[in-house]
Design goal:
The chain has helices at residues 27-38, 70-81; strands spanning 5-8, 11-16, 19-24, 56-59, 65-68. By secondary structure, it is of the alpha+beta class. The protein folds into two domains: 1-45, no CATH class; 49-83, no CATH class. Strand 2 and strand 3 (19-24) form a beta hairpin. 0% of the residues are buried.
Length: 83
């Protein structure tokens, strides 16, 4: 099993194949990390998280978060039960 979550100080990076999601309380940390990575790698940052892997984040008032992939879920349901 490969590691897919990397944490450095207060910056977290989630990796899925060739997609990377950065999380931090301070957006400046994310911007700095992307700037540094662009010096060595070709990156195409996307502002909309839902465009990346069809992910949707739901934030709740109690500081919890839910991550869902409705397109993948629908695809699996269609494969199992038919369209």
């Amino acid at each position: 099993m490969d590691s897919c979550l990397f944490i450095k100080d207060e910056l977290s990076c989630l990796v899925y194949i060739d997609d990377y999601l950065f999380f931090a309380r301070n957006e400046h940390m994310i911007t700095d990390m992307i700037t540094n990575l662009k010096e060595e790698f070709m990156l195409e940052p996307e502002d909309d998280l839902s465009a990346n892997l069809g992910l949707h984040f739901n934030h709740y008032t109690d500081s919890t978060m839910e991550l869902i992939q409705p397109l993948l879920i629908q695809c699996i349901l269609d494969m199992v039960f038919g369209p």
